[in-house]
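Design request, tokens follow.
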């Protein structure tokens, strides 16, 4: 087929993996895949529908592409992903620029849908979300050195603010054998770093094996030849078991980096979120992790401005951040998502209050991160090389302390040209706004 297809990937890494599988299906069907949308006949916008700002980003992208369509640069625009799954009919009615809206449950039908679109049919296909296949080939959209490895789909946690169960459905694990087979293929293709992802990685296996199996899966992944780094993302604090902590501590391939979204520390707010714990319990858990895994970097995220969040609740969160000193942290303002329980809660917080609290917390965190980054000056870090910055005239990459897309970079000079090197050792000499600078040694 002469039709060229490009994809604009929005949202989280889990959505990215779905997009990679879509592209593989289309390539197998004979379509040509190109990276630049301006070079394509058909552009797929793999949308995000998690929070209001992400929805707007998806809509803005479609509107921007519509201009290319009007100019005749591209012929068709197709929406896939979470926003398409949740608002399929409305999108097709409101965004006349779209030629197809494809829910995640219809991803396996993408080749047939594209064929219909080419024949000038308008398609809205949003079947049951649990029809989304968890297995299949991928066209890797990340740099060759790293990839995301999605081990499950959906979520059963039922946090009151979250629309993910409405969009993605119940929690479903892949088998260990299937995951290991995919990891071996990725390793054969040159991947050195696996970033293990799911809506809740720590629940992995409970549905199909009857118990939490992430520790076993990680041990098996460590046996895959060629993989040197394994990073665990999207962990849930309630299921951060001693067994899992011990596996992370003992296995050399597993990076001493833990992504643990806590969302808040106030017992009252956590209860309203349908989450468990308190400031004291979370502090005890984090202390245990740091005691068992020296030098571990902990990343977390918080939500400020949740309904009924008082000044006292917010002050407690600020004190928690000051005391724990997270090496990596992000903060979101609460987004009132329709059809979620929290959207109907009384005492919704004004937007200006939410934004002020976010600013206060992030300014506090920037000071903490600056102190941490300064503590790395003079040390040597192993860095995964990702490219050469022609403007800065230096190489860049990530250390074990930096997850792709969310954390900073390490920029470094090298006396020799780096061609085939995947990893180098870099002596850190400076830090600016969360990024590290140094020299290859």
């Amino acid at each position: 087929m002469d039709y060229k297809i490009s994809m604009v990937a929005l949202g989280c890494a889990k959505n990215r993996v779905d997009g990679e599988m879509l592209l593989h299906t289309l390539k197998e069907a004979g379509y040509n895949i190109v990276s630049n949308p301006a070079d394509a006949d058909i552009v797929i916008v793999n949308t995000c529908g998690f929070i209001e700002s992400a929805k707007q980003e998806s809509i803005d992208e479609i509107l921007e592409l519509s201009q290319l369509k009007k100019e005749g640069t591209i012929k068709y625009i197709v929406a896939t992903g979470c926003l398409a799954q949740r608002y399929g009919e409305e999108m097709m009615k409101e965004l006349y620029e779209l030629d197809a809206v494809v829910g995640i449950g219809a991803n396996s039908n993408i080749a047939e849908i594209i064929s219909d679109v080419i024949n000038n049919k308008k398609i809205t296909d949003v079947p049951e979300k649990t029809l989304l296949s968890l297995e299949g080939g991928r066209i890797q959209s990340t740099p060759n050195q790293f990839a995301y490895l999605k081990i499950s789909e959906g979520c059963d946690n039922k946090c009151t603010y979250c629309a993910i169960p409405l969009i993605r459905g119940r929690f479903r694990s892949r088998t260990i054998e299937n995951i290991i087979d995919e990891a071996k293929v990725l390793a054969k293709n040159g991947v050195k770093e696996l970033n293990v992802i799911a809506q809740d990685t720590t629940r992995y296996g409970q549905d199909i094996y009857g118990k939490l199996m992430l520790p076993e899966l990680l041990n098996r992944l460590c046996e895959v030849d060629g993989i040197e780094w394994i990073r665990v993302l999207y962990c849930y604090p309630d299921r951060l078991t001693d067994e899992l902590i011990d596996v992370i501590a003992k296995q050399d391939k597993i990076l001493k980096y833990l992504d643990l979204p806590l969302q808040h520390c106030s017992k009252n707010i956590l209860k309203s979120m349908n989450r468990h714990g308190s400031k004291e319990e979370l502090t005890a858990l984090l202390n245990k992790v740091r005691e068992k895994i020296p030098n571990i970097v902990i990343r977390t995220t918080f939500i400020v401005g949740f309904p009924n969040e008082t000044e006292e609740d917010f002050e407690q969160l600020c004190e928690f951040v000051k005391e724990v000193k997270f090496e990596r942290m992000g903060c979101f303002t609460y987004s009132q998502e329709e059809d979620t329980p929290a959207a109907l809660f009384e005492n919704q917080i004004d937007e200006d209050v939410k934004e002020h609290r976010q600013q206060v917390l992030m300014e506090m965190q920037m000071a903490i991160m600056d102190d941490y980054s300064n503590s790395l000056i003079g040390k040597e870090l192993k860095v995964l090389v990702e490219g050469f910055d022609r403007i800065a005239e230096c190489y860049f990459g990530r250390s074990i302390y930096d997850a792709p897309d969310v954390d900073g970079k390490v920029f470094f000079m090298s006396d020799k040209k780096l061609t085939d090197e995947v990893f180098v050792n870099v002596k850190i000499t400076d830090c600016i706004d969360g990024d590290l600078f140094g020299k290859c040694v």
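Comment from the thread starter after seeing the answer: thanks! The domain at 4-131 is CATH 3.40.50.12160 (Rossmann fold).
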